[in-house]
Amino acid sequence: MPSAEDTSVRQEPVVRPTHQDETAAAGSELFGGRVGRWALLGKGPLTPVRVIALVAIGMFALGMVQKIPCYEWAWFRGTTSQYTHACYSDIPHLYIGRGFAEGLVPYFDRLPGDMKYLEYPVLTGLFMQVASWLTLTPESDPAQQREQMYWMVNAGMLMVCAVVTAVCVTRTHRRRPWDGLLVALAPALALTATINWDLLAVALTAAAMLMWSRGRALAFGVLIGLATAAKFYPALLLWPLLLLCWRAGKWREFFHAVLGAAAAWLLVNLPVMVFAPEGWKKFYTFNRERPLDFGSFWLIITQRTGTAIDVETVNLGSTLLMVVAVVALAVVALAAPRRPRFAQLALLLVAAFVLTNKVYSPQYVLWLIPLVALARPRWRDFLIWQACECGYFLGIWLYLAYTTSGDKHQGLPEEGYQVAIVLHLLGTLYICAVVVRDIFLPEHDPVRRDGSDDPSGGVVDNAPDVFVVGEGSHAARHAAHLAVAPRVEWGAARGPAAD
Fold first, then answer.
1. Closest CA to 134 of 118, 148, 154, 120
2. What's the first-to-final CA gap in the chain, in angstroms?
3. Where are the domains of the chain?
4. Helix 365-375 and helix 414-440: axis angle, to 10°?
5. 365-375 helix and 342-356 helix, angle to the nearest 10 degrees
6. Would you call 275 exposed, middle or buried from its count of C-beta atoms within 10 A (0-12, 13-18, 19+)?
7. What is the predicted pLDDT for the residue at 480?
8. Cα dist from 491 to 43, 52, 243, 442, whole Å
9. pLDDT tops 90 at residue 471
10. Do 460 and 245 meet the contact criterion of CB atoms below 8 Å apart?
11. How far apart are CA 359 and CA 314, in angstroms?
């Protein structure tokens, strides 16, 4: 029997993007215009969750179609073709290169060559291994067919991860389910989904944020621990959570989350740590020893100055910049006149990691897509950022085509690739700047315009502050911000003016 509180939450009107977002309204003209006032949203078979899941599948399929030139021949005939067609993927190459085709066990069996062991976290390695078990091709088949089948199996598994991500974002903000369309329709998701295995960690992180929004701190921690066992970046979300729980005095829930994360991470990693320690360490030693690489501002510095920067210097510089970002985020979280939303702080910290890291692979944009959709659900800003990321996606492949085409010089020269990197950096900084503006001027925050506090905040949603830096100096301003956006019935012909 649902509680009265749960019933009231479900009966709250759904925010209609075409009434709040001018870009969404303009785009809706392709499908008949704005949603009418008396439309029965979510009452038929095509609920927001189902629509967004279908759209995510469709966009993922379009991304697979974009990879057809590589699937048919470019992965197997030289190197330049897969770059000129912008359809490169690690998946088929690592099927052979990391021993899955020969039945080697990740972390336990040594690989031929310099790599020695698989350089991925344990849960991602398990994902890769399961996909190899499902790649049912006779040993007599040529290597090309086996690589094609391995990519197809991984694509099917990653499609499930993409749908889970979109659905979790759809359900995180109860009154804003259509924000999930930002994820489902993201061009960069379609383009980069099958480059690598990042979508596994992205889906687990999105599911964790959904659990936190429902007040399930332990489930959040378990999912974050599993996500961290697949990729490092999800662990960063514990820092903004600490800051918000500190400000709201929700220490019990935070410790439950940390306990769940540590237990889940250890459950996955401990067997490999104990029985294959050298293989388990490879991910960490590889990332520490990896030189500066594509997509980073460090690469621009070396190319423009002609001065090589050693790995230790880059590691130290990246670490110091992240420390600055962590401290800055703490100041923002604890001193803002109104407590920031969890998704806002999570986006800022992960974006700082992306911006300061010594490498930016094109699929790393997948880490940010669900966070941007929750932190800044405005189509104009989202599309500006996506345009920058798609520009970088094309830039890196054309640059690699230029470096591998010999005297033909097909593709983008070094200076052009630097422009693509700057475009990516500026796009990410732009979305971060808008989110910081929303934190200090909450009346600009689309999520808070209907009177909501932090729909993804779980136990800190609508919780009173118990610790604020400089609380006395801005108590009145905080109260004013709480009053700027009373509950609005979004069925009206027009919502509040777009900023």
1. 154
2. 41
3. 44-482
4. 30
5. 150
6. exposed
7. 37
8. 15, 21, 36, 23
9. no
10. yes
11. 10
Amino acid at 162: A
Contact call for residues 11 and 465 (beta carbons, < 8 A): no
At 1, is the pLDDT very low, low, confident or very high (cuts 50, 70, 90)? very low
Task: Of 340, 349, 348, 334, give the one whose Cα is nearest residue 453.
Answer: 340
CB neighbours (10 Å) of residue 12?
15
Whether the Cβ atoms of residue 131 and residue 148 lie closer than 8 Å to each other: no
Nearest Cα to 28, choosing from 168, 186, 190, 178?
178
State mean pLDDT over 171-181. Answer: 93
What would the two tokens of residue 118 be? 């698989």
**Tokens describing residue 295:** 């997509």
**pTM for the full model?**
0.90
Whether the pLDDT of residue 364 is over 60: the answer is yes
Question: Does pLDDT of 273 surpass 70?
Answer: yes
Answer with the residue of higher pLDDT: 78 or 134. Answer: 134
Helix axes 414-440, 379-404, angle to 10 degrees: 160
Report the phi/psi class of residue 42: left, alpha or beta, with left for phi > 0 and alpha for psi in -120 to 50.
Answer: left
| DSSP conformational letter for 342 | H
The C-alpha atoms of residue 457 and residue 160 are separated, in whole angstroms, by: 26
The reported pLDDT for the residue numbered 28 is 61
